[in-house]
Amino acid sequence: MKRSNGFSFFEIIMAALLFFSMIILFLPLFSLLMKEQVVLQERRTIAYTLHDKLQSSLWSNRPLEISTFNLENTQTEVTITFETNESTLIGCAQWKNINYRDEEYCLHGKYQR
Predict the structure, then answer these.
(1) Alpha-carbon distance 81 to 91, whole Å?
(2) Residues of the chain where predicted confidence (pLDDT) is lower than 50
(3) The model scores a pTM over 0.90
């Protein structure tokens, strides 16, 4: 076979193999990162909402009832419950995240007397 200055067939096959191997490796990783980003965004939104409800309950000196709401982006159903424990108000939010795992986030607040 005569030598040419271009790519050989073997080099093209190896480059294509390397390229598709990288795609197969990084595509699932990218998908996982996007899902975890949504999970963290949900947690942050729920924490802000729980904080606001807990603050309004502390300022009015009466615990709120159980409330349920849906997140705007993912339509995740979140249930918020409040308990009083001596001079402390405990607010907890429960929901099932995008990975179908049960999550709970609680905040504690002290009544001002």
Answers:
(1) 6
(2) 1
(3) no
